[in-house]
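[User] Could I get a sequence and structure tokens?

[Assistant]
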Amino acid sequence: MSAPATMFQKIWDRHVVVKAPEGEELMFVDRSLVIEGAAFLGFDILRNSGRRVRKPLQNLAITDHYLPTLNRAAGLAGIANPDIRRVIELHEMNARDFGLEHIDMHHPLQGISHVIAAELGLAQPGLLLTCNDSHTATSGAMGCIAMPVGGGNQLSHVLATQTVWQKRPKAMRIVIDGAIGRGVVSKDVILAVMAKVGIGGGAGHAFEYAGSAIRAMSMEARLTVCNMSVEAGAKIGMIAPDDTTYQYLNGRRYAPQGAEWDKALTFWRTLPSDEDACFDREVHLNVGDLAPMVSWGTSPEDSAPITARVPDPATYATPEQRSRVTRALEYMRLTPGTPLTDIAVDRAFIGSCTNSRMEDLRAAAAVLKGRRVVVPAMISPGSTSIKHQAEAEGLDRIFIDAGFEWRDSSCSMCNGSNGDIVAPGERSASTTNRNFEGRQGPGALTHMMSPPMVAAAAVTGRLTDVRTL
């Protein structure tokens, strides 16, 4: 009888091809998503070495980071910035030259890679999925191992061999219990996890999220949680598949059909961690009393309930912590002791692979209905399909009537690769996943929060507890 195993162990072991004496393991890759960014480096390595893509059908090219959110109908000719236009052109050329299906700017299934991986059923329980982007962990919410690879040598290795060398991480279970209260959503939960674990607390680990609060979440909410695993240093974030997963996947474009569905379901039910499985580390968090969260500093761990105040660096334990927090507050132009609700914002953004799904848009629309924004605000849905569904439900009219710009799907103002950026010195209420210095543009000041909290900030002009509206 085999020893009890974690879900991570079960899936990882199934994909090991060979173990190297140095400790790394060669892993078979079921599916690879290839986004534009640094992908041209990987393709150049293949081209220069005379290699081809080994399994083209298991690799999908996606353009998402550099796509414009306005004037999409004009195509490449409508992109004024020649550097941005060239990145998109290169990806189109490489996908064509190497025989990959390409979800480009005009494709009906266009969307952010980590949104459409679940939306199309590309991510499924038990698979090993890679993408040359740090937020690949998002898809782990589907019960698979989803991990990032570099855009150069690692990506070329995946494309040429359908395998990747990886060092096996340790396993950490993050148990989240409690009934989530009014005005609190999954983004608040993961920001609370970041505040507890810290930006490096998960380094060298694969996260498995568990507990009653996770089980009660929708599939879209789980994707938000796994998305930010990398912000705590973990490359992998996972949630065991259950009926919520199966109901979400059933009928998706790339999901198994007919008898294959029944066969897959039987296998998927074997994947959750065994009852007596051992984890290298466990973290417990009760979110029963959790308030909506916002970030105040320049790291995801710099997050606090909206009811709190800007922290005082003097209260931190070590000189290194005091120095870091002091630097963060200087960059963010904040004074210790200031109530978070006194912080005015200059603009608002709803989008990114973290919070651009239908559940997110509905939550924001519920706050915005009948109200008007007092700062510039924009929404970029996670995919063209999501945009069409939102329009069919009339959400676009709520956003437009409230004063939000209703744009096309792209990574957009998350990192500004397409030119959508926050001006220097402007303070942004944002649903994105990173608040590092300059993340949304040079000198931009980013406060991360949930979609309803961004909506609340947009209509009040300051960080606001959405529960008071």
